[in-house]
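The protein record minuted underneath.
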Amino acid sequence: MRKHSLVMAAVAAMVLLPLVVAAVEESGPAKGESLMLDVKPFNKKGDTYCAVCASAPNPLVMVFVTKNDDATHGLLGKLEEAYKAGYDQHLFVAVVLLGEGPEIDGLKTYITDHKLTTPAAIVPWDDGDLKTWKLNPNVANTVVFMKAHQVDHTVVELAAKDLAANLEAITG
C-alpha cells in the first residue's frame, strides 16, 4: 500500500510539475539583445528621447508596468530610492506604463501625486519599437537590466525586495 502511494505521488508530480512551470509567464528581451525605445516622460520637462541611447555606456533599468496595485507601488518606491542613490554613479532608470485605461491612469496619478522623479512615460502597446521588447501584457511588471546598451537580464514580476540584488548585477 505504501509503495502504491509513493508511485502515485511520483506520477502526480510528473504530470503536475510541467503545468506549474508552464504557468510562469515569460516577458521581455533575451540576454545580449540591444534595443531602443523612445519615451517622453510625463513627470519631467523635455522632449522625447531614446532611453537606451541616453544611458550611453552606463547601467540602465527599464521597468515596464501594466498594473496599478500595492506591489507595483512598492517597486516604484524602491526604484525611486535606487534612482536617487545611483544618480551620482550614472545609473539610469526609466519607467514605462504600458497601454491605456484605468490601470495606467491610476499609475500616472500615483507617480504624479507621490512626486516620483524617476522618468516615467506612457507608451501604447502598438508602438513599433515596443514590439521588439517582447513584453507580455498579462504580467504586472517586466524589468530589463542593461549594461552598455545590451540586456544583461530580465526579471518578470520583480518584487521590490529583490530590486537591490538585481541592481548589483549591473552596477557591480
